[in-house]
């Protein structure tokens, strides 16, 4: 079969790196939630995560000012709330109240964790050298939390233009990585 040309605007859907997450930041009036899918692991120990935020996003300003955030990982049962948060601006909306999500105080950052998410990562900005040009923040995870009652949660993955994929079966293969 011969391959066909793919519009460059659709490349994102092929390389999407991981689950859609909810990034929380502390605001002056209230905390905010941003739906985010442009992220990638950069280092394992200490865990460093790269995230792209547009300078048009309310969370961009909050993260720049505070230097900290939380990355909350939802399971697929929160899909409608995740998309709702992504389609709403925090400048005008209290997303916790609007979408029925529960803020929980974090241990080391001012940004709240989201109780309904199966995992939460407290983060500090580690490197902001590419923020001006690319909106690329490198975050260091300084505390991590997981719900031990949720085993192999199914996550939501953005494919672009309103299309999502749900994580499927986990397979284990031989690996030299420990």
From TrEMBL:
Domain called Flavin reductase like: residue spans: 13-165
Highest taxon, organism lineage: Bacteria
The keyword Flavoprotein belongs to this UniProt entry's keyword annotation: yes
Molecular function in Gene Ontology: FMN binding; oxidoreductase activity, acting on the CH-NH group of donors, NAD or NADP as acceptor
UniProt keywords, alphabetically: Flavoprotein
Named cofactor requirement(s): FMN
Entry similarity comment: Belongs to the flavoredoxin family.
Record-given protein name: Flavin reductase
Species for this entry: Sulfurimicrobium lacus
């Amino acid at each position: 079969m011969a391959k066909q040309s793919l519009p460059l605007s659709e490349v994102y859907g092929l390389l999407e790196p991981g689950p859609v997450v909810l990034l929380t930041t502390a605001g002056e009036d209230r905390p905010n939630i941003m739906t985010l899918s442009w992220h990638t692991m950069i280092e394992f120990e200490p865990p460093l995560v790269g995230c792209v935020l547009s300078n048009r996003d309310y969370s961009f300003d909050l993260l720049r000012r505070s230097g900290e955030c939380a990355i909350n990982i939802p399971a697929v049962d929160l899909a409608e709330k995740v998309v709702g948060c992504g389609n709403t601006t925090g400048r005008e909306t209290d997303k916790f109240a609007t979408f029925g999500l529960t803020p929980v105080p974090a241990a080391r950052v001012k940004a709240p964790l989201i109780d309904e998410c199966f995992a939460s990562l407290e983060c500090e900005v580690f490197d902001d050298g590419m923020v001006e040009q690319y909106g690329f923040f490198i975050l260091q995870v300084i505390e991590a939390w997981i719900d031990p009652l949720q085993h192999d949660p199914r996550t939501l993955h953005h494919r672009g233009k309103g299309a999502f994929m749900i994580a499927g079966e986990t397979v284990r293969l031989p690996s030299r990585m420990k």
